[in-house]
Specification:
The chain has two domains: 150 residues, Quinone Oxidoreductase, Chain A, domain 1; 124 residues, 3-Layer(aba) Sandwich (Rossmann fold), CATH 3.40.50.720. It is 28% helix and 25% strand. It contains nine helices and 15 strands. The strands form three sheets. Strands 3, 4, 5, 6, 7, 14 and 15 form a seven-stranded mixed sheet that branches. A six-stranded parallel sheet has the order 10-9-8-11-12-13, sandwiched between helices. The longest helix is centred in the middle third of the chain and has 21 residues. It comes from Rhizobium subbaraonis. InterPro entries: ADH-like_C, ADH-like_N, ER, GroES-like_sf, NAD(P)-bd_dom_sf, QOR-like, Quin_OxRdtase/zeta-crystal_CS. It holds the Pfam family ADH_zinc_N. GO terms for molecular function: mRNA 3'-UTR AU-rich region binding; NADPH binding; quinone reductase (NADPH) activity; zinc ion binding.
């Protein structure tokens, strides 16, 4: 037996209840891990509400880190005692869990399990956005919405290390100050300013090479107005609701723009891709070019309160659930 958050009906944070659940021995190709920490991400909210489809009942969460305690049949690349982390395996909201080793990476000794749990999904998201979806080069100008969020704080530092001019948006004085301390050259208060007009002003009319947008409905289509001719709109989330009725003609009207809707899972689908992405993240963190901020922790039993705070935009940086 173990304890886990089980969603038995879609809805608000109140559906997140902690239960005793059966935990079978790990199957072929699986290991059991005792989790040290679990990462909280907006994708967890999407599954809880039904925006993303899951089969009820389910244990939410995709990101965590812990120690291997038992091996299933055929496992040879991991050993009992290994410190491991993952970002793409459903069922994270649990004290212990079984997990297919295809999702796991070993955590370097210099990185704590708590830091690993806080950065795997968010950090590998920043990696694929900045280095793969639209490779950021020195001299480019980028706009990153939700600059003080978990992905935003990592991306700001990383983009600055890549030589870009980094513009962000945030919704409070405290979040603006936090983002400015994490690589951003300029941060726009979207609650007080027209961010598209401000981007035009900050760039002397030249606009941005790329916009990274995880907000969705509230920032569309103005994000397109921030782009240079033939610039790239990267929509990788929809915290404010999904973008609806995207008229492709807008891309032509606003400068032969490009648009894409990537997900991390398509960038780490193979062992080689996962290892390359994770190692790139580990390297930039160990170099101290990117530091990971764990700004909130909640007991696993209070996952509902954590979701409420996340949706109310009361959180910044990374948030952990502690079993």
């Amino acid at each position: 037996m173990t304890q886990a958050i089980v969603v038995r009906a879609l809805g608000g944070p109140e559906v997140l209840g902690l239960e005793e659940v059966e935990l079978a021995p790990p199957g072929p190709g699986e290991v059991r891990i005792r989790q040290a920490a679990i990462g909280l991400n907006f994708i967890d909210v999407y599954f809880r509400t039904g925006l993303y489809k899951g089969e009820l009942p389910f244990i939410p969460g995709k990101e965590g880190a812990g120690t291997v305690t038992e091996l299933g049949e055929g496992v040879s690349d991991f050993a009992v005692g290994d410190r491991v982390a993952y970002a793409t395996a459903d069922g994270a909201y649990a004290v212990e869990r079984n997990i297919d080793t295809k999702h796991l990476v070993k955590v370097p000794a210099e990185i704590s399990l708590e830091t690993a749990a806080a950065m795997m999904l968010k950090g590998m998201t920043a990696q694929y956005l900045l280095l793969q979806t639209f490779p950021v080069k020195p001299g480019m100008t980028i706009l990153f919405h939700a600059a003080a969020g978990g992905v935003g704080l990592i991306a700001g530092q990383w983009a600055k290390a890549l030589g870009a001019t980094v513009i962000g948006t945030a919704g409070s004085k405290e979040k603006i100050e936090l983002a400015l301390a994490h690589g951003y050259d300029h941060v726009i208060d979207y609650t007080k300013e027209d961010f598209a007009a401000r981007v035009l002003e900050l760039t002397d009319g030249s606009k941005c090479d790329v916009v990274y947008d995880s907000v969705g409905k509230d920032t569309f289509p103005k994000s397109l107005d921030c782009l240079k001719r033939r610039g790239m709109f990267v929509s990788f989330g929809n915290a404010s609701g999904p973008v609806e009725a995207f008229n492709l003609g807008l891309l032509a009207q606003k400068g032969s723009l490009y648009a894409t809707r990537p997900t991390l899972f398509q960038y780490v689908a193979t062992r080689a891709e996962l290892d390359a992405c994770a190692n790139s993240l580990f390297d930039v963190v160990r170099s101290n070019k990117v530091r990971i901020n764990i700004n909130q922790t909640y007991p696993l039993a209070e996952a509902g309160r954590a979701h409420s705070d996340l949706e109310a935009r009361k959180t910044s940086g990374a948030t952990l659930l502690i079993p």
